[in-house]
Specification:
Bound molecules: zinc ion
Strand order of the largest sheet: 2-3-4-1-5
Radius of gyration: 23 Å
CATH topology of the largest domain: Rossmann fold
Order of helices and strands: HEHHEHEHEHEHHHHHHHHH
Number of helices: 15
Largest sheet: 5 strands, parallel
Low-confidence stretches: none
CATH architecture of the largest domain: 3-Layer(aba) Sandwich
Number of domains: 2
Structural class: alpha/beta
Number of strands: 5
CATH class of the largest domain: Alpha Beta
């Protein structure tokens, strides 16, 4: 694991390395940027560099071999704490923040300092944010805290003003293309480029879309919603939910897949809207064109805007961890309400 090796974050790495060299390293950092561009990986790499017991003074290059480095890589370093929003919670509980502050107040076990990563800082409540302020204002010597969030607007100004903000941008398409090829996730260069474009600068999203099962489901869903025949909303809901649940055992995996697929529908409806308005739609997957043109021909721009808004609401609800079966059922119902209008219904599979 090398923090310097996180693609697209070379500039951030340079700035941090320079401030370390000058002895001006900040005690609190906020890594802000879109999901899936490597913020957490970068934070872990930085933790390893700082907790490395064999690096040259003034350098932030982890050796990768000393006990400190090995423990960070193995998630067993006693002076590294990583916390995130619990799976079943909509917010980061104040209790989590208090525990983190208590942990910071204790002396380091191995080295001169302690390092904590707080992911999902977007979901800090005001109460939880306030619980942080004392630790942020008077950090124990050698303590470094990294908050990870998707947008600065979401963090409270009182938190932001005490952190050095490091911005992460969406990754350039060629960087993600290369990463997909390196990891053997795309059959050829053209496929890697298509997946990278679909990911819109998020490596994590491109990697999820590279799963052949996801690709097949996405294709089938878009073609079905663009087809001239109507569909049964309960059947669609059941199919979507089953597919989300196939992503793994954890509800986090179901939701991640849910957000991914609903996000793909948002893009699909958007491209239909742009087609209908005579614009040149951004359409990273050329195979979406027939369904998107058919939808544009069958529906008014108002309908398509309503569909896009409905997708955004579903994405928000899934992110907010509302009960997934209900979110999906009402989503499919509302899609049907717009899309089935004037279509011939095929309701053979309605339970
Ligand atoms: Zn080391």
């Amino acid at each position: 694991m090398s923090w310097l090796g996180v693609k697209g974050a070379e500039r951030a790495a340079d700035i941090l390395a320079e401030s370390w060299r000058r002895g001006r390293f900040p005690h609190a950092l906020a890594f802000v940027g879109p999901h899936g561009v490597g913020k957490r990986t970068f934070a872990r790499g930085l933790a390893q560099a700082i907790l490395c017991e064999a690096r040259a003074p003034g350098s932030l290059a982890a050796c990768g071999l000393c006990p400190g480095c090995v423990q960070v890589a193995g998630d067993t370093h006693p002076d590294l704490l990583e916390v995130e929003r619990p799976q079943d919670k909509q917010d980061l509980p104040v209790q989590t923040v208090r525990e983190l502050c208590d942990w910071f107040a204790l002396k380091p076990m191995r080295g001169p300092g302690k390092f904590a990563i707080l992911d999902d800082a977007d979901h800090l409540t005001t109460e939880a944010s306030n619980a942080f302020l004392k630790t942020l204002e008077e950090p124990p010597p050698g303590a470094i805290l990294v908050l990870i969030a998707s947008a600065v607007e979401i963090l409270l100004p009182t938190i932001l003003s005490r952190c050095q903000v490091v911005r992460f941008e969406s990754l350039p398409i060629p960087v993600v293309t290369e990463l997909l090829i390196e990891r053997g996730l795309a059959g050829d260069h053209a496929e890697a480029t298509r997946l990278a474009a679909l990911g819109e600068g998020s490596a994590a999203k491109s990697i999820l879309l590279a799963d052949p099962e996801v690709g097949r489901f996405r294709r089938g869903l878009i073609d079905q919603l663009g087809a001239a025949e109507g569909f049964s909303p309960p059947e669609l809901a059941a199919r979507m939910l089953a597919f989300f649940r196939q992503a793994g055992k954890e509800s986090l995996e179901h939701r991640r897949r849910g957000v991914l697929i609903v996000g793909e529908l948002t893009r699909f409806f958007r491209s239909a809207l742009e087609t209908g308005l005579g614009l040149d739609p951004a359409r990273p997957d050329p195979d979406d064109a027939p369904a998107s043109s058919a939808l544009a021909a069958d529906h008014t721009p108002e309908d398509l805007v309503a569909l896009i808004e409905r997708c955004l609401l579903a994405e928000y609800q899934i992110e907010r961890r509302l009960y997934l079966p209900l979110v999906v059922e009402s989503f499919a119902h509302d899609l049907g309400g717009v899309l089935n209008r004037g279509r011939e219904l095929t309701l053979a599979t309605t339970p």
